[in-house]
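We read letters as residues; the fold follows as tokens. A sample entry reads:
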Amino acid sequence: MKYRVLLFLYLAFLVVMVVVPLGGLNTTLSDTFLFQLRLDYLVHAVVFAPLVVLWRLSFTRHPLWMIILTGLALAVGLEGIQFLLPYRAWNVNDAVGNAVGVVMGCALVGGVRLGLLAYCR
């Protein structure tokens, strides 16, 4: 139950971050590069990685493929909301960064599962 509360708080955080104007913070992240990638793309990936992990912990009976598809829909859909907001900008690279975060979260879930299977043997 505690993971479900965390998941819903996390989803609320994602929605708020999509609709709140970022002002100068967005410019700072867009102008900073790490390994020739804009830092904001990496931030998008890191922010979306916990989504899959929290969902998997919250709803253990949901198949992983459903969590991944829903996560990808959220990754693209939340970025798409910014297209409708006059003070935010939609960027396909941000949506890709979000989707990469979902895949990273899936890798975390899979890695932990494989680690637990190896530990239990």
Remarks:
- Residues 116-121 have pLDDT under 50 and may be disordered.
